[in-house]
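Researcher: Last one for today. Full complex below.
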Amino acid sequence: MAQLICENLALGYDGREILSDLNFSVDAGDYLCIVGENGSGKTTLMKTILGLQSPISGKLSMSDGLSQNEIGYLPQQTLVQRDFPASVWEIVLSGCQNSCGLRPFYNKAEKQLAKENIKKMELEPLVNRCYRELSGGQQQRVLLARALCATHKMLLLDEPVSGLDPKVTAEMYRLIEELNKKDGITVIMISHDLDAALQYANRILHIGKKVFFGTKEEYLKSEISGVFAKGDE
Amino acid sequence: MGEIFDKLSLYLQFPFVRYALIVGVLIALCSSLLGVTLVLKRFSFIGDGLSHVAFGAMAIASVLKMTNDMPLVLLITVICAILLLRTGQNTKIKGDAAVAMISVGALAIGYLLLNLFSTSGNLSGDVCTTLFGSTSILTLSQDEVWLCVVLSIIVVAVFILFYNKIFSVTFDESFARATGTNAGVYNLLIAIVIAVIIVLAMNLVGSLLISALVIFPALSAMRIFKSFKSVTLCSAVLSVFCTLAGMIISILSGTPVGSTIVAADIAAFLIFYIIGMFSGGSKK
Ligand SMILES: Nc1ncnc2c1ncn2[C@@H]1O[C@H](COP(=O)(O)OP(=O)(O)OP(=O)(O)O)[C@@H](O)[C@H]1O
Ligand SMILES: [Mg+2]
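Model: Here's the assembly. Have a good evening.
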């Protein structure tokens, strides 16, 4: 059953369209990869899904028990100021904010959830470290753990491996795949890494001048993949 | 040493000195709490602008010959805080310009009003008091003391109740918004609390030195501590300590209260800076 449906969606900034006529749907348990050139509007699409900006026209609906504030996400660039004093624990726990509502403090279950996700992301040794003193890969895992605290249904990842070395990249992909396969979390990932996209995802959304949405097999047969793969190299 | 204690206990017999110390400690506590948020959210310029607005409001109150000017000053400052936050959200540059306009404008109009309408013989003395808060903390009426105490308690309570929300909104506003936190409301709350703190702190250090009172303890604590909680606690303790030290020194040696407190804050910052350099150097 579809968790997320986009119909004739048009998006952009200040009324200026970047993308229009976007149609796709995401089912529970899917692993959707969004590919496209720089500036094609991938991040914009993600922001629209998250409700950080409103679509210019068209419809974006969630169903199957998913509500907008139950989507965990990993931003492409964290706008965190460089010298923000925050420990790994504080950041991961802040992902539980949406289940708090107006309650001022975190309860036991939420702290437990944060602990589990820290363990899942293999961050236990770093729990009291300061975020800004971690490496890029470690920081990504902290933010992923925070995203996991915010959801057990759907994860949005905006280029989760950019800037990571091949070994850490592979590890990151393994962690994400585990979340998708083992925990049944729907994953929507933006990536420039077409090989990985084709390896892990079961659905591909290609945006740009031409838009494609379909399964991985269909994508490989379509001409759009050939052009993009060549242009990418 | 004994001489100093004698002198101090003599002063402490005066109720206004005791009031001043209590109010000073409370104001120091409040002003340090939001320091981290202010520094990291780039709200510090709003804080600075608002303190000038408070000066203008004070001038209006004194022209109107109000005996208790705090409610009016509070109202005007809170309204300006909300307005500044609104304009600041549209675009960065316009926001900055708006703050500059309002703050410098408020200073000029305030001084102009005082000049035109003041009947006091010692105008520059009055202005100096408002800007640098030289004695106002010692001349608080009992009503004002109560108002300060109540407002401080409200600020501390709001901060504790919304501590986790303030952390989320400060650390990563987009994530907070995406996961359903109404960031706009909390930004508004932060702005209002800042306005209240500024009006409170004006009594202690005067409008020109407020930013120092708010920002120095947070910056000092950030030199050494690495988590939000420890930085907040440390800056609260540090701020209270420096304020007490500054007030006692100024009472004993007759220096202006506000600048002595800020001098104590600066000294603490230097100490923390050096400690931070050493501990940072040994770890790496
Ligand atoms: N805040 C903004 N205001 C106006 N235009 C914007 C804004 N952010 C992005 N854009 C424009 O929208 C278009 C799409 O940007 P977007 O960030 O969605 O691209 P992207 O597909 O994520 O690219 P990349 O692969 O580089 O991350 C770009 O042309 C960009 O210039
Ligand atoms: Mg992007």
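Strands of chain A lie at 2-13, 16-27, 31-35, 57-62, 71-74, 154-158, 186-190, 203-206, 212-215. The interface with chain B takes residues 50-52, 68-73, 75, 78-81, 83-87, 89-91, 94-95, 97-98, 100, 104-106, 128-130, 133, 146, 150 of chain A (CB under 8 Å).
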